[in-house]
Fold this sequence. Notes:
This protein has a single domain, classed as Up-down Bundle (Ferritin). Helix 4 crosses helix 5 (217-228). Helices cover 53% and strands 2% of the residues. It has a two-stranded antiparallel sheet. It is elongated. It contains five helices and two strands. It has 233 residues and is an all-alpha fold.
Amino acid sequence: xxxxxxxxxxxxxxxxxxxxxxxxxxxxxxxxxxxxxxxxxxxxxxxxxxxxxxxxxxxxxxxxxxxxxxxxxxxxxxxxxxxxxxxxxxxxxxxxxxxxxxxxxxxxxxxxxxxxxxxxxxxxxxxxxxxxxxxxxxxxxxxxxxxxxxxxxxxxxxxxxxxxxxxxxxxxxxxxxxxxxxxxxxxxxxxxxxxxxxxxxxxxxxxxxxxxxxxxxxxxxxxxxxxxxxxxx
Length: 233
C-alpha cells in the first residue's frame, strides 16, 4: 500500500535510493576491512575476587566454607574496542593514524547510508535492505595500495551518486536533486581530493632511496603516517 505522504516520488527513484544506500554500506564495509579483519573482540573474562567472609551459622549447624572464587561483573567493553586487530596498527605494519583515518571513513559512509534511508522514509518510500557485498580483498598491502583502492572506491560511489542525480532530474524530482547536492556530491569531491593528495604524498615519500627526494618505502610510510595524518588523529 502506498504511503499517504508520498508525492512526486517515482518508483525508479525509490529503488535507486535503496541501491545507493546499499553501496554506501558496502563502502563502509570495505573501509572497515582496511581497519581490521579478525572480527569482534570477545568480552573480557570476569574478574575473580577472594572468598567472601565466612558466614555465621546458627549454633549446632556446621559452618560452610567457601574455596572457589566468586565471579563478579565483567569490565565494560568500549565501543572503540570492537575492532582489536587494526590492520595498520599491527606490529608488522605500525601505521595507527592511517588505521584511524580508514575507521573514520567507514563511519562516514555508514552515516551516508543512514541519511539516504531517512530520506526514503520522509518521502514516503519503503526501505528495502539488501545483502552487503563482501570486500574483494581481506588484506591490504602497502599504505599506497590501500589509499589507491580507497580513491577508486570513492570514485565509484561518486559516479553512482551522479547517476542517481541524473535519474532524479529525468523524473522531475527537484527535492532529491537538492538533497544530493546539499549533502553528498560536494562531500564526495572533497573526499576524492583528499585521497588524491594522500596518494601524491605517499608516492613522493616511497619512491625509493634512489629516487629524487625519495625515502625507503618503510620510512616514507612512517613519515606519512606521522606527519600527513597527524592533524586527523
